[in-house]
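Entry 14. Ran structure prediction on the chain below.
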Amino acid sequence: MILHTDNINNKVKSGLYIVSTPIGNLSDITLRALEVLEKSDYVLCEDTRISKNLLERYQIKSKLIANHKFNEKKNLSKVIDILKSGSIVSLISDAGTPSISDPGAILINECASNGIDIFPIPGVSAVSSAVSISGFSDKYFFYGFFPEKDKQLKEDFEKFANLEGCIVFFISPRKFNRSIKDLKRYFSNRKILVCREMTKFYEEYIRTDIETLEPFKSDPKGELTIVISEKVKEKNSSIILKESDKISIQKLIKKLSIKDITDLISQNTNVSKKEIYNYCLKIKNEK
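Output, structure tokens:
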């Protein structure tokens, strides 16, 4: 049964709604998403068979229109006319948030050009779900699907290897197995989280160091979402303190503790904390 809200601010207006749907478990859908889908005159979807299962689960009878990467341009004029007539149209993908590595951007841009209102209905995303359980940096770069050509993949890896945050990819298990050698080459000294079948019955999460990463013995079903941890900043203990840092320490030694000075100076230098601490100790003992 669908629950409805009486809040006037939540009234479903005419326009295009980008509705997030479950990535596996059909219970992972918001009440607002259900309300919008029920009130939609049309629901654009990638595969009508998959979307029909979701709508039938919640007794939603809105009309489905297949809208996938092979026909989204062909559908464009028809959908824009429907929206201009004052209809409520929802766009969903097979799983997750539409237009994130799924069809949608072409229609969204056309709606924007025609002054048609576009509303996001937030919900599940494989990207944010994977990052949220990774334990890695909350600053991340989302790439999408791996390119098919290995040459392009290596070129991209070389660029990504210098990014500071973590990196999120979509990939098939077979392609993942073929890419392990390059992952180890470009992302050494990092950790990786491999997410398979998230929120589904056979969900699996593999956490390991890149160096110990092993291929799947057999190709599991579905796509993988992988998260590579942020680049580790290594401080070079061979670098010595600058004279300017030494002068700063000498000024601070009577005002702050050695620990506080060490923490402060280390923020702006690649000198190891141990070396800074030892210099502070030396200066303090000389006083």
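Residues 173 and 219 are 6 Å apart (CA to CA). Will compare against last week's run tomorrow.
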